[in-house]
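Course assignment 3, question 2. Fill in each field.
Student: A.L.
Task: Predict the tertiary structure for the chain below.
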Amino acid sequence: MTVSGLPELMTVLACAVLVIGLSAHLLVADLFRRIISLNVASGGVMMLLLVLAVRGPGDQDPDPVPQALVLTGIVIMAAVTGLALALARRVEDPADEDDRDEETP
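Answer field:
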């Protein structure tokens, strides 16, 4: 495979990761697995943005705007994932919260 075919391959792989994440999100019932599948799908979107940052063959520098968007997306994804996991933990096990309230004097 030549280097000129690499962006096309990466585009196909990014779309495949995106589709795998979205299909897992639609098919899985567990809340934690749905959150992880959305992370996989967002990874596919970020890969696609990085592939689109390539300007063409040669030694040209990639476009910095999509790279900045991906970096910002990684930070936001980490924060939203932490919040979603905390909320999912609270939703999944409300009985523990009631038990804790009864035990404290």
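Instructor remarks: The radius of gyration is 20 Å. The chain has one domain: 3-103.
Grade: pending
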